[in-house]
Amino acid sequence: MSLNDWLKKNSFITLMVAAAVVLTLLLPAEGKFKYEYQRGRPWLYETLVAPMDIPVLKTEQELRLERSLAAKNTVNCFNYITGADEIASAGLISLLDRYAIEERAEISRMASFIYEKGVADRLPDTAKLAKILVQTPGMAQSEKAVGEVYLRENAIRIIKSLFGNSSPSDKELEEVLVPNLVFDKSATEIAHNEAMQRISPTKGILYTGEVIVARGETITAEIEQLLDSFRAEYALSMGFTGSFLLLKSGQFLIVAGIMLLLFVLLVFLKKELLFDNSKITFVLVLMIFLVTITIIVRDISPAFLYLIPYSVFALYLSSFFTSRIVVPVYLTMLLPVFLIAQNGIEIFMINAVAGSITVLAYSYWNRGWQQFAVSFAVFLTLTVIYSAYRLVEEGSLVTVNPTIIGYFVWNSLLIIAAFPLLYIFEKIFGLVSGQRLRELADADSPLLKLLSEKAPGTFQHSLQVANLAESAAAEIGANALLARVGGLYHDLGKMNNPLYFIENQPRGGENIHETLKPQDSAAIIIKHVEDGVSIAKKWRLPQIVTDFILTHHGHSRTLYFYRKFLNHGGDPAEKELFTYKGMLPVYKEQAIVMMADAVEAASRSIRDYSENSISELVERVVDERISEEQLAGSEISIRDIKRVKEAFKQKLIRVYHSRIVAPV
User: To the nearest whole number, what is the mean pLDDT of the chain?
Assistant: First the structure.
């Protein structure tokens, strides 16, 4: 075999190498800080001395406190409206005349006093305990205490009370008492932003030669902040000084190691997946997508990494693969995060647990509103593990950042928003999700209803085959739902000529095949595979379901008609006339449906439903398929077949138990 042929046969190697190259190119061209540390743990390296002057960064908690104080002390800006007091004075005189008020002096005096202090259209909540900045048209500025300023509605209430019994309405007073202080939102926002910008991210300097941390010293919160400051300054001032080529070579080797781990996992857990180009490509594309998002978000803000719904990648895997391989593959996909995020260990652990919980929750809650239950489970897990990290580091929950908890809320909601992408992946990679299989397995689906109407006997047979296949697939760890769907749709082609199949013929009626030549009968029977494929295409069934139609008879023969043909003097060399032109089963589920179809059909002809009789039937029928080499190309093992036989026996015994005649 040439190298080219070998690579074609093992195309997963090419795909994995290509993915490793893409991931290496995506990874930032920067060296990784060589020290790993965690609060509460001892420093495992040599005593670390500052190689340069290092600005000491403030903690996130300190910055939040300073931002809060700055926001609280930000002066809210108001524009002074010239002439507003004159408008109010003239309007009040008009109202006093209209209502014939004699005590005018007191009302005019109070109005003048109020307008001298200031009448504001509104006061923002942040201004309740602060001063305000008043700006006049001449650009002169002055500060006023908030307590001195009257809100417009308060001024109206005070003036109205002085009118006595014959007072004007609120609407009349609103038209008169116009505000002379109008809140300037734009100027206030500028002042707020300037206050935020004045906050220094540092709080001192660690001078060259000072000890940052000694070997074996426990890393406290203060030491951790010094180390964080050193790491930030290192990246800014020193960074990576080595060869770019060597850096990328190192990154490629690490990524190649991750690919090797993925390969080993699949070899032990589901080797056949390596030879399914669509599925292995899907896994690798997901990994590249995950890394790309992580890099983009990290460059915007490292804190936003908590916002990325990594668990959705576990959900995508759960939709297309058995739960046995989902968690190991998902954890492998997360490994590049260590190379990208500064707090890679924490990000990995939080999302490793959250992703595993997603897989578990999705196995129970995967329909409609249940998606919200999955989302809530993810939020709860993220919050608990994040809080646990804070407990390990601080011994308290004081450092739990409410903003991060808010990110977790959005994180879990994004999982729901990402569900529709499943349908896009189905189209792009030709995959079938668990959700799609559940829809197909519904006996009330239009196509199965049509089958039950046109060929009721075939429909009942298909239900029994589906039940047998599902139980057997579950027994050996195959995809039970896929096997059930394959069993339900494998005989669709019988709808075209239902009366030519014995299960659809009326009891006691004439067998239509008695009037046909054996080869003609065989042609009609064999054609149900071709007809089934045509129906599947018409109804746009997924290819993986159509393959069950092609493989459920493989290359077997219609033995009844072949023997009848020989008994009538037919030429044995013409056996191709009686041979199905389908495909041999490849996947375990296809092999199971082939065996279930043969066993169920044979079970309808027996009269003795004892355990021994059923056991002998199953053994004989399955062994015939093996001896005919119908299962030779399948991934199913001899051990699996033994367990499938036992599952068939137990299922049939339960089905036919009521027919067993008890001894008198």
Answer: 85
